[in-house]
Design a protein that fits this description.
The protein is an alpha+beta fold and 310 residues long. It is built from seven helices and twelve strands. α2 packs across α3.
Length: 310
């Protein structure tokens, strides 16, 4: 029999001890440790996913806000500016009317009273307009059947009314296509009235009483020679007519035409106002043999020659 020596106790590996503990009732301690580690790992794995989802959800809104911000600009009014000119140069969809509607709080009740340094917002409400317009566009579809019923019920009654309305425009113009520059307005300062208020020493046109914003019309068919700022005349339109004479419309609050545009008698060319050297809202109207100042003739006599009753 071999000699007996001391039996050396073999060291146990920590891992082995853990296994042994699990086999001797330590499972209650070992398993929760493993479970906790797994749960912690799951939380760490889930956290980036949640953050990524939140970021992805915010991205479209951020992109939309950025896109909207790019469409909004601010314009600073300079000397000689008027809403129609700004709307044209800034390419405002809807023209000066849309520009005025978007900036009414800044401009005030009179669209002609803009001044250098005034800040106008371009495109601020452009996106909101289609949303408001959509329900309005749907309303006429529902109203159509209602309008159709009265026509079938009483076809004879609307006929006389239509005839009466059709005769009204004929009374304001004539067969030659000529008309007064403003409807139903009385004349104030007469042609050739003397006074030191005018550079020539006399009034080169005739003034029509017209509150700011009154529709101003071309007196006859022709082509717009100029439309814009004209110093003491303020916003001005000059039209060459088919007979070779020129008509001039001054102190307008806004313009509706541009140079080179063809117009007919009665077409709107702008709105009356008090721009330039003016003591108050009115329309200064001239007839000229040429496009420039100093070639004036009697404007009322010219209109009467073309069949316009004044």
């Amino acid at each position: 029999m071999p000699a007996k020596g001391k039996h050396r106790r073999q060291r146990t590996n920590p891992i082995t001890r853990g296994i042994v503990a699990a086999g001797t009732g330590g499972a209650a301690l070992a398993i929760p440790l493993i479970g906790a580690t797994g749960a912690h790992a799951a939380e760490q794995a889930a956290a980036p996913s949640v953050a990524h989802t939140a970021q992805a959800a915010a991205s479209p809104q951020t992109a939309k806000q950025a896109a909207t911000a790019k469409t909004v600009t601010t314009y600073s009014v300079t000397a000689g500016d008027y809403l129609a000119k700004i709307a044209e140069t800034q390419k405002v969809s809807g023209g000066w009317q849309k520009l005025y509607a978007d900036n009414r709080e800044a401009v005030g009740d009179n669209p002609s009273l803009i001044h250098p340094g005034l800040k106008l917002t371009i495109g601020a409400k452009a996106e909101a307009t289609p949303k408001k317009a959509a329900p309005k566009a749907a309303e006429p579809k529902k109203a159509e059947p209602k309008k159709a019923e009265p026509k079938k019920a009483a076809p004879a009654k609307p006929a006389p009314k239509a005839d009466t309305t059709a005769n009204e425009p004929a009374a304001q113009s004539n067969a030659s296509g000529y008309t007064a520059p403003v409807d139903g307005a009385a004349t104030t300062t007469a042609y050739r009235a003397a006074g030191g208020s005018w550079a020539s020493g006399y009034h080169t046109g005739v003034d029509f009483a017209a509150s700011s914003g009154t529709t101003v019309k071309a007196v006859g068919p022709g082509t717009v020679v100029s439309a814009g700022w004209a110093g003491s005349y303020g916003n001005e339109v000059v039209i060459k007519h088919d007979d070779g004479q020129y008509s001039q419309y001054a102190h307008l609050s806004s313009l509706s035409v541009s140079a080179g545009q063809s117009v007919g008698g009665g077409d709107q060319i702008g709105l009356s106002g008090s721009t330039g050297n003016s003591t108050g809202p009115h329309l200064h109207f001239e007839i000229r043999t040429g496009p420039s100042y100093g070639s004036d003739v009697d404007p009322l006599a010219y209109l009467r020659e073309h069949g316009v009753s004044l």
